Amino acid sequence: MDTRKLLLNIWTLFIMHIPVYNCSELFNDTSSCSNLTETELIDLMLENYDARMRPPHRQGSPTSVNISVVIDSIDSIDVLEMQYTIHILLTQVWKDERLAFKDCNYSLPAKRPYVSADFHFIKRIWRPDIFFENENSGHFHTLTTKNNLFRIYRNGKVWYKIRLTLVLGCQMWLANYPLDNQTCPLRLQSYGLTTAEQLLHWREEEPIRFSKEINLPQFLFEGYDIHDETVSEDKVIGNFSSVLLTMAFRREIGYHLVASYIPMMLLVMVSWVSFWFDVDAVVGRVSLGVMTLLTINSVSYTVGKDLPIVSYAKAIDIWIGCCASFVFAAFLEFSLVSYLTRRATRLQETEKLLIDAEKCENEAHLVLLGKTTFGFDNDVETTTMVRKPKQQPISRLSRTVSRRRKVLLPNFRQAKKIDVISRYLFPILFGIFNCVYWPVYVLYPFGGKQ
Predict the structure, then answer these.
(1) Are 141 and 164 in contact (CB under 8 A)?
(2) Closest listed residue to residue 405, CA positions, set 318, 333, 347, 343
(3) Cα 160 from Cα 138, distance rounded (Å)
(4) What is the spatial distance between Cα 160 and Cα 198, in angstroms, rounded to a whole number?
(5) What share of the chain is helix, strand, coil (3-state, %, to 5)?
(6) Nearest 5°: phi and psi at 436?
(7) More confident residue, 321 or 212
(8) Is-contact 23 98, C-beta < 8 A?
(9) Is the pLDDT of residue 298 over 50?
(10) How far is CA 197 from CA 58, 65, 227, in A?
(11) What region does 254 belong to: left with phi over 0, alpha with psi -120 to 50, or beta?
(12) pTM for the structure as a whole
């Protein structure tokens, strides 16, 4: 019996002194992880590491992931597709105590407080489960090698940085286009881990940084705002953590002034030239009206082909519609003046015909006056005949001519008067329209996201 107990004690002591090479025990034993190279240290980290499990925390608290973004550039904002292209450096920081090596010494010349690793190492450890909620497309950069940076600090803090190009959706409200402001989001959200397992936060120090000044062809960058949010799915799936970056842009109006507003204004003014034409210049006034209408239609098509079809009127639509209305009104004014002039001309020709007909009737109407005496014995007294116009106060034709003359003169006068009034009325109305249009859309934009 004593021999068996002795052998059992010896076996127990032997088992207790066998070294178990796992990360936790090795890193807690300073003598066991001394003078290791960086490669050997990384190999020991992965020896018993299970990438399927998220970093353990006390009392099952969720893993906190701090997010920061460096914006390299914003290439373009596509209004037609309602999306924008952005180049970013995305940094994710979290703590995984399984990778801590604070008590270890390793042989590096600079004695850095962290260990660097490549993308092969990244695939073998746990990483945050996140995605871009408003992403249309995107890709990692791989020239000349995969653009990612991975560091592990002594206390287990993991620092992961990647370079991305993203095409993100940006729902735009175009009621004030092209005098509009737009807000485009960049939203990162947890995909499969709920708020009980993973929480996303913006980093406290410099969560957003710009590597250079943002210059866009048609927009002016005005600023940004950040929020931490919780996205609610349903009671079964749960809630998911997300972080939101919103960037504000103001559209520059210079291009649209040159391409749309000034040409339209000039076309409206050109249509007013017809008011100084003679009322008989039918060919010139028709040509001018048709030319301005077709040109406005062409400009309208050019402006609208680069815009999405929406269910509401845009500011540029109001401008084009009102300018076309002014040009069309000028054309209608010419039609009215032409109608009055042609009517007066026909009345004048009718009056001439009536006067000639009255003269013929007076000359043809004869009255025979005379006295005839009949004698006997074949003695015949000579008969005398006298032609004399018929005496009438006024004939039916004369009354018609008089009525026509009363209508004739006012028609000529009205046509000329309409042209004179239009020379002043149209510019005044167009000025009033501008005084209402620009304050409404520039100083007091309304509706939608501003």
Answers:
(1) yes
(2) 347
(3) 18
(4) 16
(5) 40, 30, 30
(6) -90, -40
(7) 321
(8) yes
(9) yes
(10) 12, 11, 20
(11) alpha
(12) 0.74
